[in-house]
């Protein structure tokens, strides 16, 4: 009986040794770049090298961005005779190992895409039935990040499918950030904390302020529809597990003001900051927004608390986010089509976060107010906060004792 008990214990330990996600990764929201928003499947190794170079040249690496992720379209249409995935020989003649080595040589990390179904969304080989084989190949190539999609999955169970890939990655032995991309259809915020490091909460983003673009059986969504789509999910976010509001459209045709607001909101929401623009053609204003270290610091705050909407009355939306050391971030967004004047009386508002039991006590404490986009001190909470905010623009501030 004793030997049987020891055998069962050994089997249990052996099974569970490969049944967990990599810990210690994504303790703050991952930051990087993904190819899909701008390039779709029109990707190649020179593009990746150019983007890696731009990370360094434009100061983006210094600002905290580290992952360069190839989305759908990097592989050949068929697996090889051994069942292995094959990089497209025209797009990636040097292979994925050499490309990952180049990215790593820049002090950056390399990511790839695949799908939990039989085929990817663009029709390339999916990982269903090949999870452990694919995970081993990713480890051989030096992959640090896997975006795992949900097309062509039939009657598969989402949680079970993502657990399988989680376990496959863990068995392969190379730490990989697992990005769950099933568009929020199966409410991953209720089950994915122990499976992935981030999970999409909506369908695909598109570069507009407030729109829905239909594609037959599915839609793409603008910035504010994505922000508004999900209700009480902020409690699911925290170090190592993040609500992902999709790759950013900053630099992809929105106004500079809308870009600032977009970036501010993704930072407030503790969403991963994954750029989706062509960095080789980025304007100075786009780079200035994307590399704003004071805004990024709000996203990367060690508490990892997702912001909540304090008010959406009139022409302004006001969002608040508790930060470490008793500080707060706030975003005042002008939703109107013309500039509006803000006159915010701190004494008339009780700002708090019931979920995390935090209060902004302006009666007993005076907080200094810093404008995070203009990098200036703009007074304190002893006086009304007054500003003129342009259409679809944002005043993002940090409150310090």
Describe the 3D structure:
This protein is of the alpha/beta class and 401 residues long. It has two domains: 19-299, TIM Barrel (Alpha-Beta Barrel), CATH 3.20.20; 308-400, Immunoglobulin-like (Sandwich). It is built from eleven helices and 20 strands. The strands form five sheets. Strands 9-6-5-4-3-2-1-10 form an eight-stranded parallel β-sheet. Strands 11-12-13-20-17-18 form a six-stranded antiparallel β-sheet, covered by helices on one side. A two-stranded antiparallel sheet has the order 7-8. The longest helix has 16 residues, at 2-17. It is globular, with a radius of gyration of 22 Å. The model is unreliable at 5-18 (pLDDT under 50).
Name the poorly predicted regions. 5-18
**Average residue pLDDT:** 95
Q: Which CATH first-tier class of the largest domain would you pick? A: Alpha Beta
Task: Output the number of helix runs.
Answer: 11
Q: Give the full name of the CATH homologous superfamily of the largest domain.
A: Aldolase class I
Beta-strand content estimate: 15-25%
Please summarize what this structure is:
By secondary structure, the chain is an alpha/beta fold. Helix content is 27%, strand content 21%.
What are its keywords?
20 strands, alpha/beta, single chain, 21% strand, six-stranded antiparallel sheet, TIM Barrel, globular, Immunoglobulin-like
């Amino acid at each position: 009986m004793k030997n049987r008990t020891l055998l069962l214990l050994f089997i249990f330990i052996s099974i569970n040794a490969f049944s967990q996600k990599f810990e210690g990764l994504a303790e703050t929201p991952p930051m990087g770049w993904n190819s899909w928003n701008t390039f779709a499947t029109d990707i190649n190794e020179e593009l990746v090298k150019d983007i890696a170079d731009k990370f360094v040249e434009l100061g983006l690496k210094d600002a905290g961005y580290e992952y360069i992720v190839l989305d759908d379209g990097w592989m050949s249409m068929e697996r090889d005779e051994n069942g292995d995935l094959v990089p497209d020989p025209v797009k990636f003649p040097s292979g994925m190992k050499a490309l990952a080595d180049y990215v790593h040589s820049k002090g950056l990390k390399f990511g790839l895409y695949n799908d939990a179904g039989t085929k990817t969304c663009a029709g390339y080989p999916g990982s269903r039935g090949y999870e452990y084989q694919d995970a081993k190949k990713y480890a051989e190539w030096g992959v640090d990040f896997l975006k795992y999609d949900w097309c062509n999955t039939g009657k598969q169970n989402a949680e079970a499918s993502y657990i399988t890939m989680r376990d496959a990655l863990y068995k392969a032995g190379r730490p990989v950030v697992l990005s769950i991309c099933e568009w929020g259809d199966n409410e991953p915020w209720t089950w994915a904390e122990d499976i992935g490091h981030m999970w999409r909460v909506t369908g695909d983003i598109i570069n507009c302020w407030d729109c829905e673009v239909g594609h037959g059986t599915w839609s793409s969504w603008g910035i504010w529809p994505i922000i508004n789509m999900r209700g009480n999910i902020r409690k699911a976010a925290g170090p190592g597990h993040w609500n992902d509001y999709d790759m950013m459209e900053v630099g992809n045709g929105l106004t500079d003001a809308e870009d600032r607001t977009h970036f501010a909101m993704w930072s407030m929401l503790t969403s991963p900051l994954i750029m989706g623009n062509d960095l080789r053609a980025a304007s100075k204003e786009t780079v200035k927004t994307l590399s704003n270290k004071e805004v990024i610091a709000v996203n990367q705050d060690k508490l990892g608390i997702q912001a909540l909407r304090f008010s959406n009355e009139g022409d302004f939306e006001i969002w608040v986010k508790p930060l470490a050391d008793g500080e707060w971030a706030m975003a005042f967004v002008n939703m109107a089509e013309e500039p509006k004047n803000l006159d915010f009386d701190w004494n008339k508002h009780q700002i708090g976060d019931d979920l995390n039991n935090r209060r902004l006590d302006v009666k007993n404490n005076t907080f200094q107010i810093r404008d995070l986009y203009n990098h200036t001190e703009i007074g304190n909470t002893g006086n009304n906060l007054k500003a003129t905010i342009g259409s679809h623009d944002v005043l993002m501030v940090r409150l310090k004792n």
